[in-house]
Amino acid sequence: MSSNGHADLPVPALARRSQALKGRVRVPGDKSVSHRSLIFGALTIGETRIFGLLEGEDVLNTAKACAALGADVERVGEGEWRVRGLGVGGLRAPEGVLDFGNAGTGSRLMMGVVAGNPITATFDGDASLRRRPMRRILDPLEQMGAEVVDAAEGGRLPLTLKGPQELVPITYESPVASAQIKSAVLLAGLGAPGETTVIEKEASRDHTERMLTHFGAEVTVEPYGEHGRKVTLKGRPELKPAPIRVAADPSSAAFPLVAALIVPGSDVVIEGVMTNPLRTGLLITLREMGADISFENERVEGGESVADIRVRASKLTGVDVPAERAPSMIDEYPVLAVAAAFATGETRMNGLSELRVKESDRLAAVAEGLAQASVAYRIEGDDLIVAGAGAAPGGGTVETHMDHRIAMSFLVMGLATDTPLKVDDISFIATSFPTFLSQMRGLGALIDTEVVAA
Ligand code: S3P
Question: Which reaction equation describes what this protein catalyses (predicted)?
């Protein structure tokens, strides 16, 4: 095991054409909300109780970072955690390096937290995270008075960030629609006097805003332009402990969901999935493609709308996915590309530039994976066009490039390809969906991890 928990040696797997998938699953807690639960707990005086926390490597690294900054973080049962924090502005400088492993969200949100405290901390991560751009976070934090003491080329990890004694509140118009940028600025803004505002031209996921309100901060959200939002936070609030129930992650639910759509005869229910409208772009798109997806038992849990999602195998037709939908399904394009391969006709996914800076260059990784499965596609600028043929041959080996979602997407594809599809390394699945294999197998998916060399 590496310091981040996943196996050092690659773990290959082979997915094979499966019989109809049947049954009910509850996928783990939402990753975005899980990171934020721990972070808000650390910024609150008193005890925050969390239920249904995702216990994946990414979130566990955030838990370790919160503890290193002085919070008391305790696991009391499966998915049940307690955090006793030190309040806004009360965190301590960590002794060692904060290692976030593979996690962009954990590292970037925590940069905002550190900037909002008069402390210095060093951030690091694995080879994938070290390649990812951090300037987009550091730029606004520097405007607020934080200092980048040291950083690798281009402002990348490892880097050392120093929070100022007196932070300056800013109005920041984000150049990209990114919940990570918005959240880092707002988290820093907690420590600033006066109002910190973030403007985004397209609305990104709003968990930070919702949780700020849940913990007692004053936040206003106004529409901005056609698709955007303006979020304003009143600085230096006293955050009050509040229990959090984490709904199931729609980005993880996407894998059994697409699997059920493409494996003939399937009928699957995914329980308690968060249906926050800023996370449902995939469901909208799949329904446009003709997918039989229905919501059952709709309810509100922990301040988020939730439903049991029933999905039945469906004949899909290619569609055009507008660029402005990207923020609401940014993590779902790899698995949408899989669904598109089994559709009839072209699916055009527009405006995917942000995919190039995820855990891998996802545009390139998806394209390579489709090629390995002998699925026709082309890339035009930042658009991916998949030529669906109603079926996919399979047969190759997909490189995951340290990217959990590439691994899961192509394992899902292999459940319906003519010949098995191999994935070179599934160890990174543990960052976001540690129960993926067992839960997929529980539905009837044929995935072997002891791959015999071809
Ligand atoms: C996340 C925001 C998204 C998403 C990531 C989680 C978050 O990133 O890809 O998996 O929790 O804020 P960007 O905000 O950079 O698009």
Answer: 3-phosphoshikimate + phosphoenolpyruvate = 5-O-(1-carboxyvinyl)-3-phosphoshikimate + phosphate
